Amino acid sequence: MRKIIFPLILLLSISITACSSIVYTLDIHQGNVITQEMIDQLRPKMSKRQVSYIMGSSMLVDVFHQKRWDYIYSEQPGGEPRKQKKLTLFFDGDELTGIQGDFRPSKMPTVRKSHETTIEVPKRNLDNTLWGKISRFFSSDETQEVEKPDLDDKNNLIELK
């Protein structure tokens, strides 16, 4: 019995260690995602609200430097060495005055491609709807209209026709 257990334990331990070398590692993204397209949309004298719409809120808020927003983006794809990108935006009052960091705005203006499409919907014929068919079924020439009574100046009933 002992002769069978020892080779099984040895085989099991070797197979477990062989499986541990095939480990999937996740891509790790931290901070604000910063892309070149976002940087290309920034223009001088943009308001803080416009900048936060494009870039998102800043991860680092410095109480002593209210005129400065820092964005840090870190990624580690599949166990490779970590790559870190940093961007600092400077404001004068409510206007964007400067950009510093790993990104540079391009000289050419960017045109964002729209992924939306326009579809023309044909006009609906309400007679062909279920309600139109039902109302046509119940409406016929046999229905009589009730005549309205004439009223005098005092809103009293005078006569019926």
Task: Describe what you observe in this structure.
With 161 residues, the chain is an alpha+beta fold. The chain has a domain at 27-112: 2-Layer Sandwich (Beta-lactamase Inhibitory Protein, Chain:B, domain 1). Helix content is 26%, strand content 22%. It has four helices and six strands. It has a four-stranded antiparallel sheet, with no helix packed on it. The radius of gyration is 37 Å and the shape is flat. The N and C termini lie far apart (115 Å).
List keywords for this structure.
161 residues, two-stranded antiparallel ribbon, 4 helices, 22% strand
Give the fraction of residues assigned to helices.
25-40%
Largest sheet: 4 strands, antiparallel
CATH topology of the domain at 27-112: Beta-lactamase Inhibitory Protein, Chain:B, domain 1
**Terminus-to-terminus distance:** 115 Å
Averaged pLDDT, please? Answer: 77
N-to-C series of helices and strands = HEHHEEEHEE
Per DSSP, the total helix count is: 4
* Beta content: 15-25%
The CATH architecture name of the domain at 27-112 reads 2-Layer Sandwich
- Low-confidence region ranges: 157-161
CATH level 1 class label of the domain at 27-112: Alpha Beta
Global morphology: flat
User: How many strand elements?
Assistant: 6
Cα-based radius of gyration, to the nearest Å: 37 Å
For this structure, the quaternary state is single chain
The assigned structural class equals: alpha+beta
User: For the largest beta sheet, what order do the strands appear in spatially?
Assistant: 1-2-3-4
